[in-house]
Amino acid sequence: MKHSLIIVFGIGSLVSNFAFANAADLAKAKNCMACHSIDHKVVGPAFKDVAAKHTGEKEAENKLAQKVMKGGGGVWGGMAMPPNTNVTEAEAHTLVKWVLSLK
C-alpha cells in the first residue's frame, strides 16, 4: 500500500510540473510576458513579486483571475493593467495558479 501511495503522489507531482510548464507557455502565448517577467519588473511587476504579495490570501486566485481578464490598476503604481480579452476564465485561473506558485 505504501508503494502505491508513493507512486500516486509521484505521478501527481509530475502532472503538476507539466501543468506549470504549460502555464508558462500559455503566459507567452497570451502575451503576458510583454509586460511581466518571472523575476524582475518589466512594465508590470515580476510574477514572483505578485506571488509574494498575495501569499496567504484565500481569494487571491479568484481576484487575480478577474484582473487578468478585466484589467486593473493602482496596486503596483500608475500604470494600469489592460484587460486581456483573449484569455478565458479557465486560462486565467491556470495562469494565476502558476504565478502564485512562483514564490
Number of strands: 0
Supply the CATH class: Mainly Alpha
Number of domains: 1
Which residues form runs of ≥5 with pLDDT under 50? 4-17
CATH architecture: Orthogonal Bundle
Portion of residues within helices = 55-70%
Profile the largest sheet.
none
Strand percent estimate: under 5%
Indicate the overall shape.
globular
Give the mean pLDDT.
85
Total helix count?
A: 4
* Element order: H for helix, E for strand: HHHH
What key attributes describe this structure?
Cytochrome Bc1 Complex, Chain D, domain 2, single chain, mainly alpha, 103 residues
Structure explained in plain terms:
The chain has a single domain (2-100), classed as Orthogonal Bundle (Cytochrome Bc1 Complex, Chain D, domain 2). The chain has 103 residues and is mostly helical. It is globular, with a radius of gyration of 15 Å. Helices cover 56% and strands 0% of the residues. The longest helix has 28 residues, at 2-29.
Topology:
Layout: H1 2-29, H2 47-53, H3 60-70, H4 89-100
Helix pairs in contact: 1-4, 3-4
Summarize the model shown.
By secondary structure, the protein is mainly α. Helices cover 56% and strands 0% of the residues. α1 crosses α4 (89-100) and α3 crosses α4.
